[in-house]
Amino acid sequence: MLNAGQESACTFKRRMILLLYMRKLKVAVIGVGIQGENHVKAYRSNPLSDLIAICDINERRLKEVGEKYRVVKRYLDYNEMLEEEELDLVSVATPDHLHLDPVLAVVSRGINVLVEKPMAIKYEDALKMVNEAKSKGARVLVNFGNRFNPPFALLKKEVSKGVLGELVYAYLRLSDTIYVPTKMLSWASRTSVVYFLMSHTADLAKWILGSEVKRVRAYASFKVLRSLGMDIPDHVLAVLDFQNGSRGVLESSWILPESYPSIVEFKAEFIGTKGYALIDSTQQGLHIASETFSYPRFLSSSEINQRFFGFVRESISHIVESLVEGREPIISEEDGLRNVRILDAITRSYKEGKEIIIS
């Protein structure tokens, strides 16, 4: 068995071999908004990927990102880009409700896709993507970046070693300030706090608890956003029963006041038969008090010493390296499908006011 030092040396050696002998993946990004720009930065910072082109319907934004990261080939129409360019992998980082058409356009040409979470806002659409990809020999993988978020990734490792014993309960709260649905996202009314935020926590709960969801009961409240003309819930609470007997509670809101020191609030706890784990991913070890008070979220995506840093970069790099090496990534098509099925069940439950069984 290798010790930590030997394992690190082997990893470094493997990376050097990859750089010397493996060809780069030719990649492109569809949708260069906030998260799409992170994909651009991640590909630019990975020596195994060659960013060929970017695409966005917003010509001003396309020009801005293209010039900032020196991407010469820019397209307003992704179909034109797919016809013109030879590609191995395309990121789809369009708004939640606009994933289906670009994903189908890419995989129908036998090109792999990395799609932002959620895979879709309807299970039927997610299933179309996966079936089309399989028929063309392509992969369609979801960017569940929080699997690479250090506290959650380390907890998964400890849980796998049995440190907490058998997990019996999990609570995950992920919320945003009202800035997100009213100012940051022009398309917030086309999605919901379930698809936008609980896509993260539903995946983390399933991944760390190591079981599938069998039953869902959810509750929602409508007041603040509805008063602003947006018929979407302010807050959703969902109780998930898992096949292994464990239970998870997910809670998400996006009406926190803009005065909150962070746009995002993220906390979780996991209780097992032998132990307990608490994660506070909101205050990532840095507080800044000036004209305002803030918790800079450097662990997700940040520029440190002129390098792109964070788990957003790591999750995308993991997909690139997996495809280059021909190994299976830790996220599969089935993970994306099951995630959307859970989110659909949560939505149905609060709308119909009843428990939803997931077969």
Describe the structure.
The structure is a single chain. 40% of the residues lie in helices and 25% in strands. The chain has helices spanning 4-21, 34-45, 59-68, 78-84, 100-107, 123-136, 150-160, 179-184, 193-209, 224-227, 311-325, 333-352; strands spanning 25-30, 49-55, 73-75, 89-92, 112-116, 140-143, 167-176, 213-221, 235-242, 247-253, 264-272, 276-280, 288-289, 293-294, 302-304, 307-309, 356-357. The protein is globular, with a radius of gyration of 20 Å. The mean pLDDT is 94.
Mean pLDDT, as a whole number?
Answer: 94
How many domains? The number is: 2
**CATH architectural label of the largest domain:** 2-Layer Sandwich
What is the element string, with H for helices and E for strands? HEHEHEHEHEHEHEHHEHEEEEEEEEHHE
The low-confidence runs, each spanning 5 or more residues with pLDDT under 50, are none
Question: What would the CATH topology of the largest domain be?
Answer: Dihydrodipicolinate Reductase, domain 2
- What's the level 1 CATH class of the largest domain? Alpha Beta
What is the tally of beta strands? Answer: 17
Going by helix content, strand content and strand pairing, the class is: alpha/beta
Rg, Cα atoms, Å: 20 Å
Strand content: 15-25%
Q: Helicity, in percent?
A: 25-40%
CATH superfamily of the largest domain: Dihydrodipicolinate Reductase, domain 2
